[in-house]
Amino acid sequence: MAAWGQRLAGVRGVLLDISGVLFDGAEGSGVPIAGSVEAVARLKRSRLKVRFCTNESQKSLGDLVRLLQQLGFDISEGEVTAPAPATCLILKERGLRPYLLIHDGIRSEFDQIDTSNPNCVVIADAGESFSYQNMNKAFQVLMELENPVLISLGKGRYYKETSGLMLDVGAYVKALEYACGIEAEVVGKPSPEYFKSALQEMGLEAHQAVMIGDDIVGDVGGAQQCGMRALQVRTGKFRKLWHYPVAGCSFFLQDSPQGVCTWEQGGPQTALSIRISWGDWTTRPQATPQTS
Description:
Keywords: Cytoplasm, Hydrolase, Magnesium, Metal-binding, Nucleus. This is Phospholysine phosphohistidine inorganic pyrophosphate phosphatase. GO terms for molecular function: inorganic diphosphate phosphatase activity; metal ion binding; phosphatase activity. Phosphatase that hydrolyzes imidodiphosphate, 3-phosphohistidine and 6-phospholysine. Has broad substrate specificity and can also hydrolyze inorganic diphosphate, but with lower efficiency. Its EC number is 3.6.1.1. The chain is an alpha/beta fold. 32% of the residues lie in helices and 21% in strands. It is globular and about 55 Å long. It starts with a helix and ends in an 11-residue tail after the last helix.
């Protein structure tokens, strides 16, 4: 088994997923995952660059950051890559007027967007707004367009809240794709453009960063497709029965009885192992970046 220095050679930054990695959401609030507040603090005291990457689409960026701050995290809006602000830029650049199938919690993000006479559909995790009436309206808008455009804020299958697993936007996107015979444009993980945008904000190349998330496809697989290394936690939506070849080359952590963690390939790790191992590693001298 390769030593820590070899596994992490050249790493200069960490991208952290939020939901399921830092906290589990609840109605209007959330609960920090054990050790996550301290882990973020230790990472920020290190020489590593840190950026938070989320597909959150039920809370505005401001509301999400305020919640995390209330839970004890050292985080600011400028450190977060989120899909709603990026979607607004795309809409303005392309002159698109969306029918918004979104949660009321992020509607304020689109206040400056023209939604009259829609020529596209923007879909996000709309929660209770995923009614037949609203889905059918989105379907009708798309079917009336000569070149239908469907933009999705992420494409996750499900996520975890304190009350249990919650169906995510991906299932509804698939329904519209199937009904309309189109493919959605994804703004958020696992889109390569999403990860490239985050890396650009950090001033890093893909080989210099590690993504940590609970989603084997959106977080781990998406990061790998961009040339990054990736870690999966056993918190959040993690399931032992997950098997996805797209993420077969990830680096993972494994617990030891002493609470000291070693690098492995091919098996997931617990949240505790990440908290200990990353905190431990950030105190060590950093290896010289490699380009190979």
